[in-house]
Amino acid sequence: MGSVTGAVLKTLLLLSTQNWNRVVAGNSCQRFLIDLLFGPFLHWDDCDEPLVPALSQASFSSSSELSSSHGPGFARLNRRDGAGGWSPLVSNKYQWLQIDLGERMEITAVATQGGYGSSNWVTSYLLMFSDSGRNWKQYRQEDSIWGFSGNANADSVVYYRLQPSIKARFLRFLPLEWNPKGRIGMRIEAFGCAYRSEVVDLDGKSSLLYRFDQKSLSPMKDIISLKFKTMQSDGVLLHQEGQNGDHITLELKRGKLFLLINSGEAKLPSTHSLINLTLGSLLDDQHWHSVLVQRLGKQVNFTVDEHRHRFHAQGEFNYLDLDYEGNVSFSCSQPQSVPVTFLSSESYLALPGSSGEEEISAAFQFRTWNKAGLLLFSELQLVSGGLLLFLNDGKLKLNLYQPGKLPSDITAGAGLNDGQWHSISLSAKRHHLSVVVDGQLTSVAPSLGPEQIYSGGTYYFGGCPGNSFGSKCKNPPGGFQGCMRLISISNKAVDLISVQQGSLGNFSDLQIDSCGITDRCLPNYCEHGGECSQSWNTFHCNCANTGYRGATCHNSIYEQSCEAYKHRGNTSGFYYVDSDGSGPLEPFLLYCNMTETAWTIIQHNGSDLTRVRNTNPDNPYAGFFEYTASMEQLQATINHAEHCEQELTYYCKKSRLVNKPDGTPLSWWVGRTNETQTYWGGSLPDPQKCTCGLEGHCIDSQYYCNCDADRNEWTNDTGFLSYKEHLPVTKIVITDTGRPHSEAAYKLGPLLCRGDRSFWNSASFNTEASYLHFPTFHGELSADVSFFFKTTASSGVFLENLGITDFIRIELRSPTVVTFSFDVGNGPFEISVQSPTRFNDNQWHHVRVERNMKEASIRVDQLSPKTQPAPADGHVLLQLNSQLFVGGTATRQRGFLGCIRSLQLNGVALDLEERAKVTPGVEPGCRGHCSSYGKLCLNGGQCREKPSGFSCDCTFSAYAGPFCSDEISAYFGSGSSVIYNFQENYSLSKNSSFHAASFHGDMKLSREMIKFSFRTTRTPSLLLYLSSFYKEYLSVIIAKNGSLQIRYKLNRYQEPDVVNFGFKNMADGQLHHMQINREEGVVFVEIDENARRQVHLSSGTEFSAVKSLVLGRILEHSDVDQETALAGAQGFQGCLSAVQLSHVAPLKAALRPSRPAPITVSGHVTESSCVAQAGTDATSRERTHSFADHSGTRDDREPLANAIKSDSAVIGGLIAVVIFILLCIAAIAVRIYQQKRLYKRNEAKRSENVDSAEAVLKSELNIQNAVSENQKEYFF
């Protein structure tokens, strides 16, 4: 046994050194008790012996007893002595039963009974413990569980194992609730064993030293284990130094324990050699706290009570022989300080004072988390005034008011709600009013002090009883919740034990001889960097700037993929993506390219072309790629995606990828698996192959890569790497550019990923008895579940997971109600969302539930969420142990019929489809997405079903893009036009192969819908002209006066009907929107969504043999009215957008042809945006995406009449073609000459450095191509 003790001492007695005195100098009253643990090393496995039977009657005490036969000595478990148990005189919450175990013991369990054969039993109670019989501490089962459930009858035994165990001499049972038909009655037992330890008492100026024998210690393992208790908030517990300047320090600061480790290695940067960690809180409560520092190699565990932190340390540690300095005592002193806890805002402590004195003075210490609360109130004698001392916004306010006089106010201190002890002393007398906060005096000028003051008879601390003083005592914001100690009135200390015994003053809702403050921010349940703040009853999380929301900052505000953003209707752009949802990974910024599929684009720092020379296997080149996201974020993104790829381009000149004779790689790349990869393209990792080798078109067929041909000319191996497990590329190594004229260059594209595997992952449940099962869901402290569902059934369980008593369940309770039910040990709760419409409409609905330390919530679609606050002091851990059932329950009843999609638990997606493949009654996948998402297809786009998701078909829309929302618009230069020919001539109409030629010559067109937008400043202008073979037409023009006119001529023998909008000038450079709907003879017109008109046509009701649709200038002879002819000759100059005639979109067919279309473009027509700032001239904006003229160009200065000769257009086109050919010939000749000169110049300067590697390489490739072409003959 002695050897074991010695070994322990060598590890543990390095508790404090001579540096202690230096650190705590000036604090002579500081005292620490250090407990050197033998217990954990000499622990018996069966520490569960009954401890109460060996106790004498004197070891039992209580607050009171009903009679001598109900005394505390009769409270032994299963005994029938006396009245068969203890019962107090009065049954209220201030009663207690206490046992003295004689010495410190380790208590591992407790048990209770009611009074024998009676109706007296306790249904819930608190358990408190103490070393001295003073300053009690409350035992907690969990972080917020204070009470124990008691008995349901008189004789059954309720047993609780204490984890962790209690090390104490005294136990106290405080009944909270009891049988309402009886009174308090208890019999008790405690189980455990002896607890052995050595204690040292340090007074703040003393130290205990130990110098270790280096040879007797392991360099790989250290264990520092101790317990301490103190009333001081600051001081050094331990300082350990080595021979190289390395040291470890344990120091208490503001009630928190700091571990400082300095490796002492000069080679290490200071940020690596210095480690500073903080654990624990409120450690100055004069109760034992355990500290454990374990080092195994570089791994260090730092544990304070139940809180642990793991980290890696740098450097080695040496050690310091046992000695001590100063006043060191190997016994345990017990400072007597009796705190009192104000449990609620209704608590108060009333203490008598000397009435009629000419001074009011009081002093005390307090600690609290609340920003506001009454600390002290005293009524003045002879007048109706009073003195108030209270907290307001963490500051101390002293207010003295007397009738007819201005009140005297003092504000002192700040941040006094920090949980630390603060000392207060106040004094009020004639011409004097002052308060001292933590040694800092604040007073008012004598002229502002009271002229005369007489103290009242009672001092009220923490609050006032009922409405005794009306508004006088209720001005401050509520009562005080916190702890007080060392209370004195008129410089006389108050005996709070006498208050507890009822012989001094009175009180309400107090806990005397105990400070029940707890740090609700330790551990910090605010996730993702949320900032924790607290009050006495609860904590709050500030989620600002975290990217998360909710009561504990658990729920990400960002989507998990570009696919999810797309199906919210978002267009291409930069977005924050949170790949693991509510998981630990932070959101990051990337670019989403919304095409038919959503592409994720993640950039890195190596996108520029990099040239490499002078390398060999002994002197390799390594290029590294750093991405805008961490490797964990990239991996999560890649795992989510359906497909990922990355383009790697390798240019080479006498630079091989593989040494052909022995197959040794000469260049390679590394991915996220940190493995060497030697393939350079393709989706499968085929070693030492490039894209040309996979596709069979390498420049030398005996090699699988172009570069391996080892030619003295530039070539390249470019390929898309698409094997997801190896992406992204993180490094490239090149070793074969050391030979003469040998060089390489490389360029890596961004990481591209498309789709989202989990977003469309779904299963169809076909019977009520079918379900999918998954492993148990672990969401002890915070849990969120989200999914989509669609059904026609009226009810069914979506998800269920059970524990022994705990459970979670999400179900469709009725066609309009979705319910979240759960139990975490506080009894079952349920919250529901009710919809005004039915959920069983066979459309997708989104459900998200969350349960955390603060609350439970449920949200369905965009309906208002419902929440259920968690009990302030209830169970917090969700403990499940069964399988997770999806689409049903363990009883195979109330199963769900329908589809569930994208099921995620705490950000982790479950693969429903894979599990459904092997489960009877469940099918993978689910059809019918368009019923829910079809509304995202805009502007006439048609929703098309896909195996995973849907797409928008924009064929018959004037818009493009993934949702048919991208407006297609064009700038029309002077004299330009776009003509859509429905039929070449009447005789060919029936044989037309164009889909658009559904307007046949023998068809009567009785209705049409026309939409477009325009912007111009020119008058007159022709916006749109629709003609037929029977000289019928529709023209939309802007007249010379700026009015908008719509002219319908549906009968060749009558004048056209004219609809005139003359309310404003429409050629004002603003964007205007127009819609025309004709139904036979009735025309409805809307302009800019506000000017509406309905007219009846007199010229006819039908179009016959529609011929063409013209935008801009009319290029052929037309028999039209004079206004239309004038506008048609002038044409249109400006911007036209989203032009649509029924199912025909002429601008889209011209600018973005997806198939052959009967379209003719003349003049200058360029794709552009019609959206510009107000007042901008539509003709002066910059144009983009130039469109090649299909029919040549025209001279804008050529005069135009109603009849335009087509011959002139043909001649002009031929002339333009000839000029273009001559210009091309001249350009080619000049280019060849320039390239020859550049080639010679670059040959002379090849060894010089270049600023732009890519530009130079491109020019060299051009030279190489030009030299190759120079060997040919050119015939012009």
Automatic annotation (TrEMBL):
Q: Which residues form the F5/8 type C domain?
A: 47-193
Q: Which Pfam families match?
A: EGF, F5_F8_type_C, Laminin_G_2
| Spans traversing the lipid bilayer | 1209-1233
Extent of the signal sequence: 1-25
What ranges does the record give for the region Disordered, renumbered to this chain? 1173-1195
**Cystine crosslinks:** C899-C926
Using the record's annotation, list all stretches that form the Laminin G domain: 338-515, 761-926, 983-1170
Which residues are in the Fibrinogen C-terminal domain? 553-604
- Chain ranges of the EGF-like domain: 517-554, 927-965
Q: Where in the cell is it found?
A: Membrane
Please report the record's description of how this protein sits within the membrane: Single-pass type I membrane protein
Q: InterPro entries under this entry?
A: ConA-like_dom_sf, EGF, FA58C, Fibrinogen-like_C, Fibrinogen_a/b/g_C_dom, Galactose-bd-like_sf, Laminin_G, Neurexin-related_CASP
Coiled-coil ranges per UniProt: none
A GO cellular component term found in this entry reads: membrane
Protein name (Swiss-Prot/TrEMBL):
Contactin associated protein family member 4
**Which organism does this sequence originate in?**
Equus caballus
Q: Which gene encodes it?
A: CNTNAP4
